[in-house]
Task: structure prediction
Amino acid sequence: MKNISKFEYGVYASGIAGQNILYNFMSMYIMFFFTDLLGIASKTATMIVVAASLWDAVNDPAMGLIADKTRTKFGKFRPYLFGGSVLILITTTLCYSNFNVAPKIAIAIAAATYILWGMSFTVSDIPIWALSSVASDEPNERNKMIAVGKIGATIGVVICVLLSVKLLGLFGGERNIDAYFYAAMIVGFIAALGIFLTGVFVKERIEPAKQRVSIRENIRTVTKNKSLMFLVISLFMLNLINSIRQVSQMYFTVYTWGSADYVTSIGISLIIGMLIGISMTPKLIEKFEKKHILFAACLSGAAVSLIPYFALSNVLLGLISLGLSFTTIGVMIITSTSMLIDAIDYSEWKLGFRGEGIVFSLNTFVTKLGAAFARLVLGFGLIAINYTENQPITDSTIACFSALIYLVPAIFCILTIIPLMFYKIDNKTIGQIENELRQRRVH
Result:
């Protein structure tokens, strides 16, 4: 039976798009803003961003547990989208504010506002993704919801990549500190509006068990599900691929290809590649084992990432390679998220409760942990080449930033495969589980 309307799909995609415009705006510019606009030393900026990201990641499981224990007339997850949207708008603007204070105070404010932003983002991030697992009891609709959400996420990434530089240009360009403040206000409002409307219009149709589950029992959703644990490790590797490229691309385009304008070109290759990968994946899932699809995507992603590393001056080859790489990432994202929902169904079948909040909090946990690790990698790279503001293009800058865009992602594509070898939930098993769960819910 059809549950989810086209309007809901559209609102959900828009909400995820707005959220990802904001997330990628932060990923792309916060480090650059700290080092090149506020004048914070690269070592200090790295410590701020990594520490804040680690703290943010730690908060995710706690938020997941809170959401799983929530019972309101609006559902488990929707209430957090209302309040979270307001918090995000406020903290985003604060992150890019110039308070014109002494350097030490500026560092303290930068650290405090970025930590608050991460905590605010968590309030709505886990609930908005967990909605996909309770919007319908039909597996095909849930898979479509995932695909729609990921398409929205991709569109959000692309809008940010294509238009953020132009948005900054409207207010003075990427070297004007006030430009970031006004851009942040606009991006924060777009994200807040999308998240709020998602909470208003997207329904929760799988009702939680009336009996509240203890925190200890909820944690068993993870500890008693070995396939989920290995999948989460793979998701961490997968997120590193995206995160390292996100935090490095501004430096890469400026110091390797010679112009920030190439950020737009990367955005074009991203949207083409990701949309192809995302669009083709549901059909692949119908025909093949999900784990095998991920194996093939990881190996292909590693191969196409390595090709331009041996011809760094060839911009066209680099863009084509990135486009192909983004195609494989699109396949990986949809397949792995579908596997995550399979793991939720497995938990309900085996333990009697779904634990969507804690499971999706693990997904956001590894995303943010990956972002923290990526910024740490970038920070080490900046330290290794003795990076300073407006540094001239040298062999060391080219080698450093090219490795971050091409070589390091290829390595993590290969590493992603290893934990997947221990994932045991296949298509036949999940089909049997879904049939049994459907019968349980009827009775």
